[in-house]
Structure formats: C-alpha cells, structure tokens
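Our collaborator T.R. sent over the components below with a one-line note: 'Predict the complex.' Nothing else. No constraints on interfaces, no templates requested, no preferences about which chain binds where. So this is a plain run: every listed entity goes in together, and whatever single assembly comes back becomes the starting point for the next discussion.
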Amino acid sequence: MKTTEIKIFIVEDDKFYAELIRNTLVNDGYKNIQLFDTGKGCLDYKGASPNIVILDHMLDQMDGLHVLREIKSADPLIQVIFLSAQENMDVVIDALKYGAIDYIEKTEQHAMTRLLVMMDKAIQNQKKMWRNNRIEKLKGWFLIK
Amino acid sequence: MSELERLKRKLAREKEARKEAERILEEKSLELFQANQELVTIRDNQEAELRRQIIEIKDRERVYRNLVENATDLIYSCDTEGRITYANGMMLRFSGYTEEELIGSNFRRFVAEKYRKRVNGFYKFQLQEKLQSTYTEFPVINAEGKEVWLGQTVDLSISEGGIFNVLARDISDRKRVEKSLMLSEEKYRSIIENMELGLLEVDRNGKIIKAYPKFSKLTGYTNKELVGKDAASYFLSKEEEERMKIRNQERLEGDSEVYEVKLQKKGGGEVWVLVSGAPYYNENGVIMGSVGIHLDISFQKNLEEELRAAKAIAERSLEAKDLFLANISHEIRTPLNAIIGISELMLNSVPTPTQRKYLETIMASGDNLLCLINEILDLLKIQSGKLERVKEPTDLSEVMEHIHRSFSVIGRKKGLSVNFIDGLIPNRNYLLDATRLKEVLFNLIGNAVKFTEVGSITLEIELISSTKEFDVYSFEVADTGVGIPEEDIEKVFNIFEQASNTNTSSENGTGLGLAIANGIIENMGGELKVSSELGVGSKFRFNLSFERTNLPVEDRSSSNIGGPKSLEGYRILVVEDAEVNRFLVNTILGNWGCVIVEAINGKEAVELLKTEEFDLILMDIRMPIMNGIEASKIIRNELNLTKVPIIALTANAIQGETEKCKEAGMNDYLSKPFSQDDFYKILTKYLLAEPIIPFKNKLKSGINRKGIDSITRGDEVFQKRMVNLFVEETKLNIESFYKAITEKNEDQLKTIAHTMKAAAAHICTNDIVVIVRSIEMDDFTFEDRKNRALELIPLLEAVIIELNQAFSN
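Returned assembly:
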C-alpha cells in the first residue's frame, strides 16, 4: 500500500496540535487525512474505515480511552496511536491495554519525530495483522471443505 | 211385614248403629290421646328451650355487667332529675361512696361548684331538645376531694321515660397538657409582645396575611390597611425591593435568615429593622408563606452611621498626618540634599586639613539626620500598617552577596573580623522585597557593629525547609559585643530604647534600627528572636519564607560603570525651582563636562523644549506654576518628544509618587538626596546605553526556537502556519483566562492550561511552560491558579509580540 493511500483520522480538539500533526504528516507524504474534534464525530463517520487513528485523550463528551475501545471493538485491525498531555501513566497503560499501538507525549520536544516513526510501525503492524487474518480465514476454509 | 219383624229389624239396625258409634268413639278417643301426647311433648320442649334461653341471657348479662362493672371508665345512669339509678364499680371508687349511698343521690353534687350551673343547663337542654347523644367536659370533685376533669358522653333513652346513660372518662392529663401548652403559648406571646417585635405574615406571593399590632406601630399602618397588599412594594424602596425578591425566594426554598432592611413608614419616614424571616408550613409540610419578625434597629443604625462618620474623620486625619509627615520630610530632605552635596563638592576642591575635618563632620551629621528621617518615616509606615512591600522576582544569592560586600566594608572600618556563612542557596528566584530584606539585615548588622568593640560579627543564612512553593531560610546575625542584660532583652525592640548599660556616646544611632527590623520582619511573616549573654555577645535570628518564582529577575543593574566616562558635550536640561539644588546639580554636571540649560519650573522647560533639543532632562517634581508631572505629560504627549529621557528628581516619600512619574512618561527617578555615584550611574544608563528602554521589564526571549524548528523541520511555510495558529489560539486562550478568572471558574482555568500545554511546549521557553503546567497542579486553590494565570498572561502577550516580529516576513 502506498503512503498516499493510507487513510488517517486525527481526533484532536486542540486546533494547534491537530494542525501540527496534519502538517507533519502531509510533509511526510500522507495525503488522505481527516480531522475530527470529537470522538463521537470520528465514530459516527460512516466513510471507509481508516487505517490509522491518531487519538487524543482529553476530548469533550467522550474521552480518548472510550473512543479507543469503540474503534477496537468495531475493527481490531485499525491502528490507533494515542496522544497524551496527561503525564498520567494510568491512562497511558490503559491505552496500551485496550490495543493502542503506542502513545505520544504531546509536550515532548521530539513528539513529531516519534509520530512519524510510529506511523511506519502502525503500517507494518496492520500489514502483519492482515496477513495473519487471511491465513486464519484460509485455514477455516480448508477445514470446512 | 210384621211388627215383630219390623221391631227385630229395628233392633238389629240399632244394634248395628251402636256398634258403629262405639267404633267411632274408640277411634276418636285414640286420636284424642295421641293429640294429647303430642301436646305434652311440645310443652316439654318449649320449657326446656325457655330455660336454656334464660340461662343464656343471664350469662350474657353477667358478661356485660362484668364489663360495665370492671370498666376503667365511669358508667352510670340518672333519671331526668339527675338522680343516680345505677353506678359501676369505677364510679363507686371514683366518688368514694358505697352503692347504697350513691343510688338515689344527685350527680350534680360531684360537679365542681363553679361548673354546676353550666353542666345543669347543658343536660336540661339535651332533655328538652331530645338530643340522643352529647359530649361535654367539666371538672368534678373526686373521693380525695381533688378536682378532676371528666369528658362525659351521655345517651338519652326516651323510651324508658327519660334515662341518661352516662359514660365518663378522666381527662385530667390531657387538660394539664393543654393548659401547659396554653401557658407556654401565652408566655411566648407575651415575650414577643414585650420585645417590641413586629410580626408580619405573608403568603407565597408576598401578599400580607396578617400584620401584628407591633408591626403596625412600627410602620404606622393598621392591619386592615395592610391585609392583602404586596409587602415589598408597600415598605421597600426600589433597590431594597430587588434584594428582597432574592431573599424571599431563598425563604421559600426553606432557608431562614436574618437581615437588615430599611422600611418606608406610612406618611414618609424610614425605619431600620432587623428581620428574621422563616417559612411556615401547613400540616402537610407544604410551605404556605413566611413570617417575618421585625426588630426596630434604627437607633443602632444611627449609631453605626455616626461611628462610620467618626471613623472616616479619624482616617482622614490620619491621612493628613501621613501627608504632613511626608511633606515635612520633603522640606527637610531638600536643604539636606544641598548640605550634603555641597560638602561633598567642597571636599573635592582640596580643602585644608581643618576644613576637611569640618566638612566631614557636616557630611556625617547630614547623613545621620537623613538616616533619622528615613527611619522615622519607615517606622511610621510600619506602625500604620502601610509598609509597602514590592515583591519582585529576586535572586537571593545576589542580595546576600551585596549585603556581604557592604557589611565587610562597615566591619573593616571598625577593625572587626566579619564572617559570612552562606549555606546552600539554591539557584532559584523568589518573589520578595529585596530592599526591605536588605534594610533588615543592614539594621541588624549595623546594630551589631555598633555594640561590638573587638571580635567578630557573623552573618549566617541557611535553607531550612522547602515546600512545593516556598523555601524557608533562617538568618542569623551574631556578634561578640557587650551583650544585652537579661532584663533589657524585652525592651530592645522598643522605640528609642537602647540597652541601658551600653556606652554609645561615641556612636550615632536613633535607636530605631531594631524596632524597624522587627517591624519589617513581622510584616514579612517572620519573628525576630534575640538571645544574648552579657559580655559574650548577642544573636539575632529570624526565619523567612520566600515564594518561589520562575519569572526572570528584572535587570536593574545599570549599564557598565567602568571608570567615569566623560559626559562631555551632552546637553542636559535641569528643571528645578530650588536655587541651591540647581547649583549643586549644575556644579556636578559641569565637572563631567555636560552643557547645562536651566529652567525654574515646568512651564519654562516646556517653552525651552519647543525650540531646543536636549539629550536628557532632569525634572524636579514639586515646582510652582507647573510641576514636573504635568510638564512631562506635555513633553511626551503634546510636544511629542518621546525619545528624550526624563529623570525625575524626587525628594518625596509619598507612596505612589514613582508610579505617577512612570505614568507621566518619565523614564526613571533619582531620590534626593543622591550621591554623585548614583547620579553618575543613572546619567550613564540613559546617555550611553542604547537603546533606551523606558521602565519596561527587559524580558529575555520567550520563544523556543529549537522547539519550533524541531516540529516543523525548518519548513518555513509550515513554521509560519503553526506560529499564526499559536498566536490566534493564544489570544483566545488569554481571553478565556480572563473570563475564567472573572467568573471564578477554576475548572476552566485548568482546562485552558491543559489545552495550551502541548502547544506551549513546542513554541515557548521552558519557564513559560512551567507556569502553564503549574496552573493545572492538583493541590492548587483557585487563587493559586488565578495568580499563575495572571503571571502567565503578560508573558504570553510578550511571546505573541515576539513571534509576530520574528515571523512577520
């Protein structure tokens, strides 16, 4: 899959940070990027499912952990990168527990570098999961026939 | 047929008939017997039944009789005349008579005498109207001669020729309760009546239900005039009415409260009342309205008013005293300035040894006098609680270094060894009033030097504890001086008192030093403690807690003062009305090669500035015709001379004077009297330093260049975009901060800080980020968060300006 085809959702209500991420990704060649400022907005979006969701924790109405669980229960193949300005390890640990691939500490100086590294990791991870998924399906098919 | 035949036949027929008759008789007799037999049986049965019934009735009657006899109620019957025809056991016991004595006697004899007539009338009426059942209550006299209340139910049985069947019960207990209730009601009623409390009942809508007499008396309206009227509009002025509406609402929600309110009386006039309002409920607990108890407090109110007026007068006269002292100090300082300054000049002009000695004495005396004035002023401020503390970000180690340097010089002059034990002072800035801290230490050290002839003086500072926001330091000044006798230790902080046995004739001192130090320390939240041993030395120690700050220290040090640079050729305008001072300033400036032009008041200065250019203006504040502040405003605003530095010459100790100077557009001030050194410093600061930064704190940059470069990887378009976004968002955030502060919305403050944090971390320097983070801290109060936000806002504004400049092209 080409970089330009990867579909990315950014769920962040801080305009500055949303824009920062978007620009960073655009500069790195990603094209298909959709911004949401609430978790609900992202979950309600009925368009084609994203490959990667970059998800902030402190959101209005529904917090990031909640959104994360909803995403993962709908489609476990979607890769979620969790954002945190929380400095609260509990939230971060929960995020990883619920299946976020990694988290970014927003105030960290090299946050954007980390983000790009993580994007690669997420893409690789998804490919791997797809493959495994296909193998599982094939296995099932052979057993039944 | 023969007769015989006939006779025979007849006989035979008769025989036949007789036989038939005998048979019938026999039959009938049998029937009769049988009938008789039946009758006997029937009678026997009936008799048995009757006997059974009689027994049953007797049984039943015995049960009822027992019931009646053993009932705890009094049961008796009377005829129409009131003669008792039957009485149960209870009645007998109650009356104390035997049955024989009671039956036939009249029931009226038991009724308490004063009720007899009434009771008699009551039952006559029952008889007359043939009322089947009645109930009444009256007291009777029992067997022990005591009065007992009965509640009596009487059934009238007409059919038996008029019989009263009576059931009575002892209701004394209930009556007692009722009576005590009535008594207590009566008691409270009379208390309320006697307390001059006006009661007013209103319904849920504020309509008057009832006005009690005292309330009527209070307001001049009768109950009749008030019932059904709207209480608020009747008694309250417009503004009181508004406040009242809110209170009434609270009352309907079940809160009772006490408040003061001014009522309008009938026919004009006002009365102040203390109102205690409480809701009242119906039996289902539903609020029906409220009752207000009004106490006339007009007298107290008037007294309060008088007190307030008296207090205002007292405060005004206190202010007048302060103003007077400030003026006096001005008047003394100005000539003193000339005395000290000219002495200094004369010393520089190579005097003879004798003249030098005279001059030095003049200068020393002048210094002492000045010191005394300053100390008196300080003390007055301390005593009136008006000691202003200017808390500024301060580098504590720098302050201590300064003190150390100064007091080494003082000590050396007297041949004392001086030690400075400087424990670990963390490299931190604190919000503190450095001038006051120095004043305290100078006073203590000065005092130590004064009373120590040989040995040493030690200043020790130590960090003793540290919390999230505060660091606590202990300060100690120890000497090896004469010491203080135990009985005098208490007195050392008293004004004008010095330890009695000390020989201080050779020393100068006002005796105010310790009192001032003590006052300032107390003002800063510490406590000055002294321990001393006669002939060994004294120790003064105190702890002070300083608030940490991340704000940078304002750079107050003037620009490099190397050797005196020549100020040759600079044109200086000296605006000063006092000739001696003009002479002094001119002489000094002349020595430095400046070109001097004089003006004797503000107006002259303004006129001169219209035609001539100057490098710097020295401006006295108090001058006739036009004072320095007015002149400065005109120079800045009307003549539009914004660049030329204006230095105020102020001898004024009035609080706020320097602020006025700043507001008028002056750059700095020089407090009279000033040393040549100070004068030189300030002139060089404005004449040699470039560019001129009027008063504004010179902040170091708030932009995190590295951070911006890092997130945008040097992409300029991206950079600009992010910077613009940050500026826009920050402006909104600043607005939100103000809003949250005015609305006292603590959560909102936290939320804004939280949202800002990420952006700030990439755009601003760490010290700003630290403040942003601190607003979110867990154990902060609203005040803490507010203060941090207020610290942050100007920094953010500075960052915005800086960003706009740096990324505008």
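Summary for T.R.: The two ends of chain B are 187 Å apart (CA to CA).
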